[in-house]
Every structure is written in C-alpha cells, then in structure tokens.
Amino acid sequence: MENKTFSFGKVKGMGMVEVMNMETIHANFSGLQYLWGQYKRSTDKRVKEEIAECFKTYAGEYIIRFGKYKGLTLKQIDEINRSYLENYLTHNGDEEIRIVVKTYLKYHPEKIKGKYNVYQQRTYAYYNELKQKINDSSQSSMEHVVRTLGYIIINGKFEHCPWGCDMHSKKYQHALLKKGMDGSYFIYCFKCGQSKNFIKFVCEKRGCHFTEALEWISGILGIMVSSVPHKSVAEIKKEFVGVEEEIVLEKRILPEISLQGFGFNKGVYPPEFYERGFTVKDAEEMEIYFAGRDCTNEFRNRICFLVRDLDEKIVGVVGRNKYSEEEHYDYWARRLGLQGLSREEQIKEIEKQNCKYKKYYNFQGFRSGCVLYNANRLVNSSKEEVFIVEGPFDVMKMVLKHGYKNTVGMFGHSLSKGQLYQLYQLYENVREKIKIYLLVDNDEAGLKGFENNVKNLQELGFKNIYKCQVKNVTF
Ligand SMILES: [Zn+2]
C-alpha cells in the first residue's frame, strides 16, 4: 500500500504511517498525540480531513509501545488476540490510543463473532508445535533443562532418583532420562519404578500446568513458534496423549460446617445490601445473611453467602465486605479523622490500624476453589446453558435480576480444578451440546482468566464456549 503524506504544518511531506508512529515529534508529544491534538484543535477542514484519512487508512499500522504486545501493530495484535484490542486497549488511559484502536475496530469488524473456535485452534496448534519441537530436541538439550531444574545428570543418568528413593545408594545407578518409542522423552527410575513423561515431570517439579511447562522449557532452549501450521483441532487433540488427564481433576470432599457464632438474624441486612437493589426476599432465596452485632467470629460486618456442595451440604461461608473498597476507606478515613490526607496516605494510616480492606473472608478450612457458588441449585435444572460469573453478587444479579437461573460464581477470575470438576460432574454427558457463557471483567486480569478458563474447559471436552461482556447484561 502506498504511504500517503501530510500536506500541512510541521508534518508536511512526511509519510502518514511514519508520523503516527513517531515516538517524539516535539517536546514530549508523540506523533499520534500531535495528530489527535491537531484534529481536535484545528479549524482547517483540510487538516482534519487528512488526519481522519490517516486514522481510517493506517490505524492497523499503529505500533503499541507498552504491555505484552509491545512492538506489534494493531493489525498484528488483532491476529493474535482480538479481545486485547476490544476489551483492553479501548480502555487505555490515553485518549489518542483509544481513538486509534476504536477507529481500527470500526473499519475491521470481526468476521466470526462470539465463538472461540479460532482461538481454540490457534492455542492447540501453538502448544502442539512447542511440544513437537521439544520432542525433537537433542538429549543434551533435555539434560540442560534437567540441570536447570536443579538435578545433576550425566549422559542420561541422574546422580540420584529425582523422586528421592536412593539418596544413600551409589550415584548414577537408578534414574534415567531417555527418548521413548513414541518420540517423547521420559524419566524412569529402576529402583522405585516411577516413570514420567518429561514435560509432565517438569509440571510436577515446578508445580505448573502442562502448557506453562511447555513455555518454560521452550524459553530455556530458545524454541520459538513463528508460523503456526493449520491443522484441525480434532487432529491435534488426538496427538495429545490423554488430554483429559492433563487437567488433573481435583475431587475434594469438604466437611459440613456449623453456623454457630455467625449470629445471623433473619431479615436483618445493612443499608449497603439494599443499595445494591436487593430485597430481604432475594437474600433469603439465595441464602444470604448478615453477620451483625451478634456475630462472635471474624465474619462480623460481612454479608455472608452460604456455599453448598452438589449434595446440598453446607461446606463453606464466604463473607463479602459490606463496603466496596472505596466505601471502606472513606468510612475509616472519617472515623480516624484523616480527611485532610491524600487517599494514599489515608490507606497507609488505616492499614497501620490493621483495617486493610479485605473483600472476601472465607470460613476457616473452606477452600472456595473447590466449589462454584450456586452450583448446588443447578443439579436438577436444564442442561442447555450455564453462565459463569466472578463473584457471588454477580450470581445474584444474574439469577434474580436477569432471570438466568443457571449461573455459578468462581469467587475470582479463574476456574480452579475443583470447580472444573463440578462442571464436569454436572454436565459430563452434555459436554458437546451445552453452551457455556463466561462473563468477563473488562480488565487485564479478567481477560487473562478468561483465556485460561476457555482452554481448561476445552480440554475437558466442552465445545461451545462464549464470551459475554459484563456490559451486555447491564450490571
Ligand atoms: Zn527412584
């Protein structure tokens, strides 16, 4: 494409793409800031038209200078991660960045909306390629990785068994690193009989997921994937040995708990609860209580959500601060007479008083990662669709305000193994059909969580996963 030039002022005769990507054009202004400033301020119609044309034609060539895609153009980022543009960059603090990204998106509407097959395809292809390249690496490269993990190994023999069975025996006698018949490396110990695929060994020793291990090993060996070959997902999935076991499903039976000490008084809620638009009836329907003045444990002043397992046993209580973070610090700043200080100084002082904001408080011994909030109510409900949201208040809104009864909450951004296990238990037989809607927060943490959640659900065999932006359901 021919690069058009500007015909006015300071940028006269300069290429549009070049100006747009200039790091500094004068003083502290970048090329893009200069252009956007001129567009807003100039009264000259021609100047406005040229800048508008530059944005429309070349927005895709704009290079991002920060974050995880630093150095890539918007077009390149679009190919890797559309949602980073749509949900993250469009909220950037700098107006000119938001404008250039929005202009790009306006003129490059997404072809396939909603369904994440393309994402799935790319992710599988990418990791498959990494795995292949690791398998194709030399024995000495693999030994280098083993040494990076902290083990001593010479010519394929470990000094001692990496599972620790022969610490007092002769050295280099028992454990081996070898390439197996299937072309992948594995570690085997003759003494204790332990055997493990090399990549899974890395997972075990580093305490990470399969895909993280692939990335880590690739980093050490300098393996890169430049062009991802086009293979069908089904084909690639077959090549992963036992994909389902890659997510080790965590089945944990939680003990039933007692509600002594909470001091719940039926029908009593703080004003902050009603301000969210909920009623006593709503609260009772969802089994939400307030730990008020009769509370004798750490839940005092918290809105408490009872959590049940799929057998309806109460296995936990999650206490949500009745205040938002901002309200919390406002309250304590007033109480401690800190109104004159900046928010930062206020927070420092308040934290000194041991009153740091804690959004959630969990019942001792209860691991919120083991259960999805509200999953117990889904056991006998329709199996056509399920909505997955972050916090328990989001669940309430979906169920009570929007009528989506099949909603569960993760207590955070990502689905833990225990929660994946619950979904598996609930929908094992309809995995190919059920529609899963993930409601994501429009921030980086939310989006990162979303990508991992999609991957984990797909690895479990769920096929129809959709992203729902929170704004679409008007929270
Ligand atoms: Zn051993």
Outline the structure in words:
- The chain has four domains: about 10-105, no CATH class; about 120-245, DNA Primase, Chain A (Alpha-Beta Complex), CATH 3.90.580; about 270-365, no CATH class; about 370-475, 3-Layer(aba) Sandwich (Dna Topoisomerase Vi A Subunit, Chain: A, domain 2).
- It has about 475 residues and is of the alpha/beta class.
- Strand 7 and strand 8 form a beta hairpin.
- Helix 7 (about 115-135) crosses helix 10 (about 210-220), helix 7 runs parallel beside helix 11 and helix 9 packs across helix 10 (about 210-220).
- Mean pLDDT is about 85; it is low at about 110-115, about 230-235, about 235-245 and about 470-475.
- About 40% of the residues lie in helices and about 10% in strands.
- The protein is built from 19 helices and 13 strands.
- It is globular and about 75 Å long.
- Zinc ion binds near residues 161, 166, 189, 191 and 192.
Strand order of the largest sheet: 6-7-8-9
**Can you identify the CATH class of the largest domain?**
Alpha Beta
CATH architecture assignment of the largest domain: Alpha-Beta Complex
**CA radius of gyration:** 28 Å
Q: Give average pLDDT, whole number.
A: 83
Rough shape? globular
Number of helices: 19
Summarize the biggest pleated sheet: 4 strands, antiparallel
Q: Count the strands?
A: 13
Secondary structure class reads: alpha/beta
Catalogue the ligands.
zinc ion
Portion of residues in helices?
Answer: 25-40%
Number of domains: 4
First-residue to last-residue Cα separation: 44 Å
Give the low-pLDDT segments.
112-117, 228-233, 235-247, 471-475
Which fold name corresponds to the CATH topology of the largest domain?
Answer: DNA Primase, Chain A
